[in-house]
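Worked Example 4.2. Consider the chain below.
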Amino acid sequence: MATHQHSYLAHGNKDDYLKRLRRIEGQARGLQRMVTEEQYCIDILTQVSAMTKALQAVSLSLLEEHLEHCVLDAARTGGPEAAQKLKEASDAIARLVRS
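Applying the procedure from the previous section yields the following structure tokens:
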């Protein structure tokens, strides 16, 4: 794992990510409550879909940050770090596509 500062922290987006993740955390608690209260399955599935979309939006935003900053900077510098950053991005994209 690299020890340098991550792009979302370096570019002032940390608070935005935390806000979005707290909202998703609230959605997860809401889903637990819905299951506990034995609410209608379709309503639960609708909320699962909303939470999934919210997580995907965070993932895509983080990926975009990584490409725009970490990968681009490494590509400009060249060398083994550039190849490593491209591989990390490719692997992340593959994980997102599979999920």
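Residues 12-98 form a domain with the Methane Monooxygenase Hydroxylase; Chain G, domain 1 fold (CATH 1.20.58.1000). The CA atoms of residues 7 and 70 lie 7 Å apart. Compare this with Example 4.1 before moving on.
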